[in-house]
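Lecture notes, continued. The same structure-token format from the folding unit now serves as the input rather than the output. Read the line below as a description of shape only.
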């Protein structure tokens, strides 16, 4: 692993890649000379829109009895052992919900070269601050005690979540600035100002959300995050608060692109972030767009 700071690597152009076919998985592994974190083949819009990425994925359950600080969950991870370690993401469901409500995100993200833990919360009524602490506890478990810990680069971690889980991902990013990315989905939180946040954050909201209305949640959250943190806001046309609870391709495309860009420092994904997506399914997209 190189000692070059990961933040600096974000601004490096991708060098020529060496392509190797991984037998038995159908994965094309591209290792950029200047970026040791790059995983997987060069992306296209169609590859991001597909139901699965290039990596085969395995899954293992985590009992609540074997962990502290959160309620257990499910781990999804690439089966490949030839590409070194992967970045990792912890994801929280929303108020009154279980991981099963958004579980499609686990294999979808893992198949693009991440280890993902979808958590169960201690109680389904846990508030965002508690969910934020639980996300961090899940990352600590994942990197220190889990059966897949040797597959993870503990310096490249991210958080995400739906509703109060999305609000929790903001809480986690605020309290642990070493995180590489956050992806709140239809986030809900009574705290509207995140001026202290320094983690690259993609917020995805639903235009017709009546529970965490974008006008009082997602947009104020986005506006309060400093531009220096690197941020983007995607709004889904006519989407309700529950858009993450079924497979949502625009959400998947932008989430994967954001995580690959900032967890893997992979500049090949710049094209999907800046200037950003444009389609009838998207009512708004804005970004600090510092990429070049």
């Amino acid at each position: 692993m190189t000692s070059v700071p990961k933040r600096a690597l974000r601004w490096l152009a991708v060098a020529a890649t060496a392509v190797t076919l991984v037998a038995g998985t159908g994965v094309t592994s591209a290792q950029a000379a200047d970026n040791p974190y790059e995983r997987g083949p060069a992306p296209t819009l169609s590859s991001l829109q597909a139901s699965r990425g290039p990596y085969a994925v395995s899954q293992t359950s985590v009992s609540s009895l074997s962990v502290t600080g959160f309620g257990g969950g499910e781990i999804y991870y690439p089966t490949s052992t030839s590409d070194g370690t992967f970045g990792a993401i912890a994801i929280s469901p929303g108020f009154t919900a279980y991981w099963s409500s958004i579980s499609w995100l686990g294999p979808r993200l893992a198949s693009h070269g991440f280890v993902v833990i979808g958590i169960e919360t201690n109680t389904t009524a846990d508030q965002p601050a508690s969910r934020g602490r639980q996300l961090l506890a899940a990352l600590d478990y994942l990197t220190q005690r889990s059966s897949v810990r040797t597959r993870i680069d503990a310096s490249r971690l991210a958080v995400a979540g739906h509703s109060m889980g999305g609000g929790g991902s903001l809480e986690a990013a605020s309290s642990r600035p070493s995180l590489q990315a956050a992806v709140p989905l239809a986030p809900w939180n009574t705290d509207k100002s995140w001026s202290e946040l320094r983690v690259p954050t993609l917020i995805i909201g639903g235009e017709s959300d009546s529970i965490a209305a974008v006008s009082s949640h997602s947009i104020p959250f986005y506006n309060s995050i400093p531009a220096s943190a690197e941020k983007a806001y995607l709004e889904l046309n006519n989407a309700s608060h529950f858009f993450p609870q079924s497979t949502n391709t625009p959400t998947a495309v932008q989430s994967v692109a954001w995580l690959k860009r900032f967890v893997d420092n992979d500049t090949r994904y710049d094209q999907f972030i800046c200037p950003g997506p444009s389609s009838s399914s998207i009512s708004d997209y804005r970004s600090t767009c510092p990429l070049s």
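Point for the exam: Residues 192 and 221 are 6 Å apart (CA to CA).
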